[in-house]
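Re: weekly structure request thread

Next one in the queue (485 aa):
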Amino acid sequence: MKEARSASTPRPQLRGPGVLHSRYVRRAPQTAVQPSSTPATASTGLLGSGHVVVAFIALLFVCQLALLVEALAPVRVVFRILSFGTSLALLVLVKGPRLKHPAMPFLLASAGLTALNFFHPGTNTPLAAAAQLGIQLAVFAPLFWASRLRIDAKMFGRVVLLLFLFNVASASLGILQVSFPGRFQPALSAMVESQGEGYVRSLQFETASGARVFRPMGLTDVPGGASTGAFYSVLLGGALLLSRQGMSRKVLGAAGIGIGLICLYLGQVRVAAVTLIVCMAAMGLVLTVSGRWVRLVTLASVVGGFAVVAFGWAVAVGGDAVLSRWSTLTASDPTQVYQSNRGRFLDSTFDEVLPEFPLGAGLGRYGMANAYFGDNSDRASPPLWAEIQWTAWAYDGGWLGLVCYPLALLATLWWGFQVARRRDDSRGEFWLWGSLLFAYDLGALAQTFSYQFFMSQMGMEFWLLNAAFFSAYWNRNAAVHPHRR
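Done, posted below.
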């Protein structure tokens, strides 16, 4: 005889004929405990929300702008390390589900190699070595703490918009600095001034009006620094142009592309232009693979049209100096142009640095750590110079250092490409953000051949943006039932 149904057990509700047209979805009991890797376990409050990313980006901007204020010159070191220290603090303070980004194992291996070099005989001082290790950890720390936050697609869109607006502001100011000589010019970096009058003069050019000006600095204190803002104005503007978030975003993206291209031409930084071409080609490749032909034509038309108009505008303002500078890219092979400039540093890394330091050169011997905390009185451990990121990796970990970190970048690139080529639009515009990240990451990889990208705030922005996207995509994917994944 069957047992009587308990009074506390709810009876199944009868449903009408419409149930035949409903999708059957099995749901777990409400009282089931979710595993620790689900979004439900994310911490609540400010330190558990995506607002932490927005606040951190605002801090990066404040630290960069503080370097332009002459009154704060005595405490410049504070603003240089504030963002790095905050990144390390958030690594401890932010709690939540530990999502496993594909790049994490390689980054941890790279950090381990750097830590081992702490005990290298060539290490400068314990303080400089600790600073060197701390900088490297702080740069990729956002991948670990930002991926724990509850970030959705809307919040990620805000992050992209915030980065876009700041870079457009820097590019716009760069245009004004050339158009109105002396009126919007910040103080020149003390490090640049220390290179001598001849070097400083080489960073200037004569405009069409006859005035002699520095290459546009934008919101930096380095001649040509506005080219970075110009580069990201075009790249991020391309994503806003292709977005479905309203006509205002499309117009804003198109305006950013135009402003960025004008500033890029005036900045005369050829490496930034070549990198931008590579990035836009990468975005076009993803659009082609995923079959989004209309968006591909839109992007090519807008960027191509603005490229022609912006060049005419830049020549009209900058004069023959702009025209002759950019003509060098077509007058000779671009690889020869790179080889005669930054390429020699790459050759030196493999021909001289690695044979001398196959396991690393010790810590605290180059860069900001050495400049602020190093003691170069020991002739047995003289300071070293790292112009490009590959040389820095060789100093920090030798041959293995040139393997681990690049593998982390390749893993990040591949994951972004996998998301970008998806045809399913039911998850919003993740394919668009994946296309942007793929191009953005490829650009960052290219810039490692030009300067120490992953020893700067730009490197932190790189891992922050990738972590925010990874968290947003994972949280959205976790909210979708398996039958729709």
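The first helix runs from residue 51 to 66. The chain has 18 helices and two strands.
Next request, please.
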